[in-house]
Design a protein that fits this description.
single chain; 252 residues; alpha/beta; Alpha/beta knot; Helicase, Ruva Protein, domain 3; 7-stranded parallel β-sheet; 10 helices; 7 strands; RNA binding
């Protein structure tokens, strides 16, 4: 009997991404790609102008087809957010509305608290050309502003989604393993390093680098410290032995 294919892990609870009147299928596709990068899967489209399952959107999604297939269309923004308990709106223009302001990083914490409490949340993103209208922003509890160059804050749709999604994933998608890949070669022992030091010091003395009797002990300690900090593997020590050996041949 063939082994069963392991089931994909359940997606973590996450905020919905609501695109209001997206104009181009390609932009919906690249948004889906940005969402999938950040563990977001609930895509809601308000009056999309083009088919979000068409060839252009699928090609732009670059493998994030599942997000597109799961997307739902709504006739109005109010309908798209009707089941949500907390809604944030992304805009660089405050439109003279008195609403709390937050950054994507702060919003990730806020949304995380809402979702952890068992409630639903979402983020509104406006049309490519003009952004969210007043009536759309009025539906939001707070406004997300991305702290960017005040002289130029223009972002395309997928960029805006990626910025918000990235902060969400950094706050709630971990833990992340930032350790470098394990080497096939074991770490060098102190004996390995000592042999390398002696080999190198012999050559440095022969070429005159350690000519100063007074400075020689300190210079040797400094060289030792360089290699001690490097965390060398056995293979790397062998390579350094070979380099030192070849440098001697080059002087002949």
């Amino acid at each position: 009997m063939a082994p069963e294919t392991p089931a994909e892990p359940e997606p973590m609870p996450a905020p919905a991404v609501i695109l209001v009147q997206p104009q181009l299928a390609e932009n919906v596709g690249t948004t889906a790609r940005a969402m999938h990068n950040c563990g977001l899967g609930d895509l809601r489209l308000v009056e999309p102008r083009e088919d979000w399952l068409g060839d252009k959107a699928v090609a732009a999604a670059s493998g994030a087809d599942a997000v597109l297939r799961a997307a739902r269309a709504y006739p109005t923004t109010a309908a798209a957010v009707a089941d949500l308990h907390r809604v944030l709106a992304t805009t660089a223009r405050r439109r003279d509305m008195v609403k709390p302001l937050t950054t994507p990083r702060q919003a990730a914490q806020t949304l995380g608290g809402v979702i952890a409490a068992g409630h639903r949340a979402g983020v509104l993103f406006g049309p490519e050309r003009a952004g969210l209208g007043n009536d759309d922003v009025a539906l939001a509890d707070a406004i997300i502003e991305v702290p960017l160059n005040p002289a130029y804050r223009s972002l395309n749709l997928a960029q805006a989604v990626l910025l918000v999604g990235y902060e969400w994933f950094q706050a709630h998608g971990g833990p992340f393993d930032m350790a470098p890949p394990a080497s096939d070669s074991p770490p060098a022992t102190q004996a390995d390093l000592d042999n390398l030091h002696h080999h190198l010091f012999r050559e440095l003395e022969d070429c005159g680098f350690l000519r100063s009797e007074e400075k020689r002990p300190g210079m040797k300690r400094n060289i030792r410290n360089i290699f001690q900090r490097a965390g060398l593997s056995v293979q790397e020590v062998r390579t350094l032995h070979g380099i030192v050996k070849e440098l001697r041949h080059g002087r002949r």
